[in-house]
Specification:
Elements: E1 9-12, E2 14-18, E3 25-32, H1 42-57, E4 63-65, E5 72-76, E6 86-90, E7 96-108, H2 115-135, E8 140-144, E9 147-150, E10 163-175, E11 181-193, H3 202-206, H4 210-213, E12 225-228, E13 233-245, E14 250-251, E15 256-257, H5 258-265, E16 276-281, E17 290-292, E18 296-300, H6 318-329, E19 335-337, E20 340-344, E21 349-352, E22 361-362, E23 368-369, H7 385-394, H8 396-403, E24 414-419, H9 424-442, E25 448-454, H10 464-477, E26 482-487, H11 495-503, E27 508-512, H12 513-520, H13 525-542, E28 549-550, E29 558-565, E30 568-575, E31 581-592, E32 596-599, H14 601-617, E33 624-630, H15 635-650, E34 659-666, E35 674-677, E36 685-686, E37 692-695, E38 700-704, H16 711-716, E39 723-730, H17 736-745, H18 762-771, H19 779-784, H20 786-798
Parallel strand pairs: 24-25, 24-26, 26-27, 29-33, 33-34
Antiparallel strand pairs: 1-21, 1-35, 2-11, 2-20, 3-5, 3-7, 4-5, 6-7, 8-9, 9-10, 10-11, 11-18, 12-13, 12-18, 13-16, 14-15, 16-17, 19-20, 22-23, 22-28, 29-30, 30-31, 31-32, 34-39, 35-36, 37-38, 38-39
Helix pairs in contact: 9-12, 9-13, 10-11, 12-13, 13-20, 14-15
Length: 801
């Protein structure tokens, strides 16, 4: 949809690169010499080898390639490595596999290049920019390949702050099909404690640093530290005490004590020989790593209390964000690649503004919420779209109260589980408020049939007592009930998935003890109103209630959301008019560490076949099927999909012309923000309207699903994020705009937090909830949306709802 001709433009934090037009990129091919098993693990092995070659062997970008009929890799052709060189890497069952550097060189044409080839070309330019910033080590320090921070914190002269706040520059190079090169850039903020681990008291270690130091937490789940060695800083995690001082502990590989090592490499640091030596993990292969406790500084996130009072806020207005980006760009001078100098412009890429209109929502008794008045359109142009979208958004909850849910499934009996020591008056006020809210939303009261407590002591952080209480209740009730669980705030993250396993399909809704107390706190009724409303919606949704649905059909008949976490897989199938029918299934992934998880090909094929058969038998059309994959779609998964489609075509479940596509939904991608740019002379940058999108090429589009122009720009100082939609497989040509619009529409089935624009479609969000924790809402979202929900609550009170 095009907005009215009011001179507002779409701007993106993409910056044109001048001087490299028409430049060809040459890539060298590496080949796996030994026969590699063609099993489910193959794509993960190849990716792991690419990472190893990149970081530990060749020290240059390495990408697996599917261009050839053999497993191989591509690297920049000008990398100094001799043709014929053979590199051995560990493989299967202690067997080493040989990778040979061939004499084969590809010269890519961006229009014909594969995605991984364009990505590699972008990495070549990124290396030039990274080298330039690395040379300025008196100004910047690096935490990632393309993430640099100011050497000195922004608030170094603010004595009242408990943490140091560093602004950083995150960048990436985008090579478009047209051959145009763009620099994507954004600002990151890192908060590091001002006191080292050595200077923290025992009480601070047990409270503020619990997630940093608790050895019961898996090491990859612990919060990080920065080893500040003066001229260099490194990210790492705490791995335990050595029990010795730095003058005593010997680093075996170096044949030196920690003190001797630091004296040699960092002579300017003044270290106490009695300083404790502690183990750390930097994510590499080496395990015998130790450092002085006095050089370990904790990294904090926006959830930590110490950040609430920091003078440097994590969020920035669009104007401030772009100004900070441009200050970093000012350092990028004297750049050259392949003998050609190039420069990076300071002006944002701008386009005509493009926005998807919010969908029409259907509530009980056929009542519809429209995003704009029926007579409010002239052709394809909507006047005052900002006001129309704001009014539509604020009417979501009033429509529910007035007309009831679209599908009102009776609520089953409820059993309440709570931690011992939670005062009775707080429990009862909480249950009373929840019951009243459920009555307002559905016209029916909650039937609470039992209360069960569970123990909370230090040894119970894995939830053993809670799980026992759940099992006992299942034995006593002998039928369907809904488990309403108040989770102790100190539980490990693993408790929730274990809870789901124990309940074996029984409906459940969890709420943190902190949120429970907020609901029961009548001293802050606005905050309590928001929490109890969302909790009630969560309870109802768990029981099968649909507060509202999309009135109109999506562009495609079936959407399948797939996500993995810690070896578990969640599948959500949305189909029927507006995707209002949902089927859910779970399975197991092939796990190779936390970073890369692949689906089992046979299981994927089986899940897709069986569920699409079920949808077909129910009489729903299957003319087009789209998979939303949270993160990466592996080649092996594509093979499983093709086999499933082939089998279903043979069974005449799918027609031969059925359109099948796979879209990666990437929350972490190019560091790009979208903005609304006002006309001259203002040229002011504002947050984009939700639904703003920018098409990069036929396979990729950027989509902003969140943001509140005006409120965020002025009072909250925040900038909306973006999603990258990447069409990685399609049986026939597919319209990336249509795929992006459906993804945007599917963000509006966020029933459990209706006043929050979620960043991802529910095909992904519901999988996140299923695999992680379906708590009332994410704590970060709660904090960020407090002001805007106050505004909504005031509107509801004014309407006497």
């Amino acid at each position: 949809m095009k907005t009215s001709p009011n001179q507002k433009l779409l701007a993106a934090s993409l910056f044109p690169m001048d001087g490299l037009q028409g430049l060809s990129f040459k890539l060298r091919v590496l080949r796996v010499v030994d026969a590699l098993p063609n099993d489910n693990y193959r794509p993960i092995r190849l990716q792991a080898w690419a990472d190893d070659l990149w970081h530990n062997v060749l020290k240059c970008p390495v990408f697996p390639t599917s261009r050839f009929d053999f497993p191989g890799f591509i690297v920049p052709a000008d990398v100094t490595t001799e043709v014929g060189r053979v590199i051995s890497l560990p493989g299967v069952a202690d067997k080493e596999f040989r990778i040979a550097v061939t004499d084969r060189v590809l010269e890519i044409d961006p229009k014909q290049a594969r995605p991984e080839e364009r990505d590699l070309a972008g990495k070549m330019i990124e290396r030039v920019i990274s080298d330039r910033l690395s040379s300025l080590n008196s100004k910047f320090w690096r935490t990632e390949w393309t993430l640099y921070f100011h050497l000195h914190p922004e608030n170094e002269h603010e004595a009242r702050d408990d943490v140091n706040a560093y602004r950083g520059f995150k960048f990436g190079v985008v090579l478009l099909e047209s051959g145009e090169l763009l620099l994507a850039a954004d600002i990151r903020t890192k908060y590091i404690g001002r006191r080292s681990l050595a200077n923290c008291s025992q009480a601070e270690r047990e409270s503020a640093l619990a997630r940093h130091l608790d050895l019961e937490i898996e090491i990859e789940d612990r919060a990080t530290f920065v080893r500040d060695n003066g001229s260099t800083k490194y990210s790492c995690r705490y791995a335990g005490p050595t029990g010795q001082s730095i003058s005593e502990y010997q680093i075996k590989e170096q044949n030196q004590t920690v003190l001797e090592f630091y004296t040699q490499h960092y002579p300017r640091l003044r270290l106490d020989p009695n300083d404790a030596a502690i183990f750390f993990d930097s994510g590499g292969r080496k395990k015998d790593l130790a450092a002085p406790e006095s050089r370990m500084f904790p990294v904090f996130t926006t959830e930590d209390e110490s950040l609430r009072t920091c003078s440097v806020k994590p969020q920035m207005t669009p104007e401030a964000r772009v100004q900070e980006i441009q200050s970093f760009l000012g350092e990028l001078t004297g750049l050259s690649y392949a003998g050609r100098t190039f420069s990076i412009g300071r002006e944002l890429v701008t386009r005509e503004r493009s926005i998807f209109v919010p969908p029409k929502l259907e509530y009980g008794k056929g009542n519809v919420l429209e995003p704009y008045p029926k007579n409010g359109t002239t052709g394809n142009v909507i006047p005052d779209i900002e006001k129309a979208i704001a009014d539509w958004r604020f009417n979501k909850v009033p429509m529910l109260y007035q007309h009831g849910p679209y599908f009102n499934e009776p609520l089953p009996d409820v059993v309440f589980f709570y931690p011992e020591g939670l005062p009775r008056d707080i429990r009862e006020r909480f249950l009373e408020q929840l019951d009243l809210e459920i009555l307002k939303q559905t016209g029916s009261k909650m039937n609470l049939i039992a209360r069960r407590s569970y123990r909370i002591v230090q040894g119970e952080r894995n939830g053993a007592s809670l799980l026992s209480a759940l099992k006992a209740a299942m034995g006593e009730q002998h039928g369907m009930f809904l488990a309403l669980v108040a989770l102790w705030d100190r539980f490990f993250d693993s408790v929730h998935p274990n809870l789901k396993e124990v309940l074996k399909g029984l409906p459940s809704q969890c709420v943190t003890e902190r949120v429970l107390r907020t609901v029961a706190n009548t001293a802050d009724p606005m905050r309590a109103m928001n929490r109890v409303r969302n909790l009630a919606l969560g309870v109802l949704i768990t029981a099968g209630v649909q507060p509202w649905v999309l009135l109109e059909s999506l562009h495609h008949d079936v959407y399948i959301g797939i996500d993995t976490l810690h070896g578990r897989v969640s599948y959500h199938f949305l189909f029927g008019k507006g995707g209002r029918h949902v089927l859910t299934s779970f399975g197991a992934a092939i796990k190779r560490g936390r970073i890369q998880e692949s689906l089992d090909k046979v299981e994927l094929r089986t899940k897709i076949e069986s569920t699409l058969r079920e949808i077909h038998q129910a009489g729903h059309p299957l003319r087009s099927v789209v998979i939303h994959r949270d993160g990466r779609w592996w080649k092996r998964e594509g093979q499983g999909l093709k086999e499933a489609v082939s089998n279903l075509v043979r069974e005449k479940i799918l027609t031969t012309d059925c359109v099948v596509g796979v879209v990666e939904i990437r929350k972490s991608h190019f560091p790009v923000r979208l903005f609304t740019k006002l006309a001259p002379p203002s040229n002011q940058l504002l947050n984009p309207l939700p639904g703003t999108y920018l098409v990069l090429d036929q396979q990729r589009a950027l989509l902003s699903t969140t943001g509140r122009p005006g409120a965020w720009d002025k009072s909250e100082g925040r900038t909306a994020g973006t999603l990258l939609l990447n069409l990685v497989e399609n049986s026939q040509p597919m319209d990336i705009c249509a795929l992006a619009e459906d993804a945007y529409r599917l963000t509006h089935l966020n029933w459990s937090a209706p006043d929050i624009e979620i960043s991802v479609p529910v095909t992904i969000r519901w999988n996140d909830d299923a695999l992680r924790a379906s708590l009332v809402s994410q704590q970060q979202e709660e904090d960020e949306t407090y002001d805007q929900t106050n505004e909504l609550n005031q509107k509801l009170e004014g309407a006497n709802i």
